[in-house]
Amino acid sequence: MQSILIVAHASPYGTEKLFNSLRIALALKDQDEQVVDLKLFLMSDAVFGALKNQTTPDLSYNLQQMFEILSAQQVPILLCKTCAQARGVTAEMIIEGAHIGTLQDLTRWTLVADKVMHI
């Protein structure tokens, strides 16, 4: 089993970077060749991607739904506490299954990961 950590930094809808990182995460969980221990850590403006009640009428994707699928697949999702606080994001505002984490959490996840992707 491989352990993969995705650290996302990009804003949710300003570019497609966060969207593509979630596409990669979903593909990793959907493949059958190998079991993957996947974790997601959101930093900077990426914390906005895990907000509840998103409406995206002009886009063909909804990041909230993608995060909810990953959460249902038991993928841990943490938001950087400092980044969330700086942006006014609280635990009550984020989707079920996502949590506020710390730099220490990211450090622990990084040390045990076989691969770390920064997007």
Automatic annotation (TrEMBL):
SUPFAM superfamilies assigned to the protein according to its UniProt record, in alphabetical order: DsrEFH-like
Entries under Pfam families matching the protein: DsrE (PF02635)
Top-level taxon of the source organism: Bacteria
GO cellular component: cytosol
TM segment ranges: none
Extent of the signal sequence: none
UniProt cross-references to InterPro entries, sorted A to Z: DsrEFH-like, Sulphur_relay_DsrE/F-like
Record-given protein name: DsrE family protein
Species of origin: Shewanella septentrionalis
Taxon lineage: Bacteria, Pseudomonadati, Pseudomonadota, Gammaproteobacteria, Alteromonadales
